[in-house]
Specification:
Blueprint lengths: L2 H15 L9 E6 L4 E6 L5 H5 L4 H17 L3 E6 L1
Length: 83
């Protein structure tokens, strides 16, 4: 794990913990595929709606932030939100 990707995982966890009801359940982990780094976000099932947002706006915003961080490092980063 590189410093940049671990910083990304920490930033994502901190950001999501700020607006969910069960911050202790938030977990972000990373894996890799041939063409991209995959960040998986797990939240409490009751908080899933908050993380996705109305019409997926919050999830889209989180994916945009993660994607921008990837552009800075030159890697493609994919955010997967898990139940």
């Amino acid at each position: 794990m590189t410093t940049t990707s671990s910083g990304l995982v920490t930033m994502l966890e901190t950001l999501v913990k700020a607006f969910v009801d069960h911050p202790d359940s938030v977990q972000a982990s990373e894996g890799s595929r041939l063409d991209a780094l995959v960040v998986e976000l797990k939240v409490d099932p009751e908080d899933l709606g908050r993380v996705i947002g109305r019409q997926g706006r919050t999830a889209r915003a989180l994916r945009t932030l993660v994607g921008l961080a990837g552009q800075k490092t030159g890697k493609r980063i994919i955010l997967q939100i898990l139940e």
